[in-house]
Amino acid sequence: MFGLGMPELLVIFLIALLIFGAAKLPQIGSSLGTAIREFKKTVEKPPQETTPEPPDEILCSQCRQPLQEDWTACPHCGVKREA
User: In this entry, which stretches build a coiled coil (predicted)?
Assistant: First the structure.
């Protein structure tokens, strides 16, 4: 574990005990464990795939003007409508 042995971990624990005190140490450990657990859950969750909703209106691919369904080309710019 990062090259830390038992003596190093004991020194780190004693320093933390002196800095935070015996009453705060369990609270710090609990909140740290909760944070790590939430981080792991977020990282391991598969991404949700979103499906794009079909547009309510048909737009010209070049000038972005609305088109009617029966039009084969845009009357504004003359670009043929994509199928």
Answer: none
